Amino acid sequence: MSCSTVRGILYNYISTFVDGELSDTDMAAVEKHFEACAHCANERFEIVQMNNRLQSEFAYSSPYGLKDDRKNKLSKSLESKVIHKKSEFSWR
């Protein structure tokens, strides 16, 4: 695989490459090229590092207690909407 082909994969299919979603054949060919070409291997390293920084920079964690608060409110809401079904055999 040539450098231009590998660079095309890296830059046109960044998320596919970084997420490991290339076909097994393409991934094997790209990895083999990285073993022989330090320049392309370095570009891969930089792309992976950039992806890792972006993921950690934009990672979101909810405020403390939000999950429990939502669960409690949902439970209360559902409890208030419980419909009591009449028995099939209700005698008057």
Note down, in words, how this protein is organized.
- This protein has helices spanning about 5-10, 15-20, 25-35, 40-55, 65-80.
- The radius of gyration is 27 Å and the shape is elongated.
- About 5% of the residues are buried.
- The chain has one domain (about 5-75).
- The protein is mainly alpha-helical and about 90 residues long.
- The chain contains 5 helices and no strands.
- The protein starts with a helix and ends in a 12-residue tail after the last helix.
Number of helices: 5
Number of DSSP strand runs: 0
User: How would you name the oligomeric state of the polypeptide chains in this document?
Assistant: single chain
Main β-sheet description: none
Series of secondary-structure elements, N-terminal to C-terminal: HHHHH
Q: What is the count of distinct domains?
A: 1
CA-CA gap between termini: 84 Å
Strand content: under 5%
Please state the average pLDDT score: 80
How would you describe this structure in keywords?
single chain, 92 residues, mainly alpha
List the helices and strands and how they pair.
Blueprint: H1 3-12, H2 14-18, H3 24-36, H4 38-57, H5 66-80
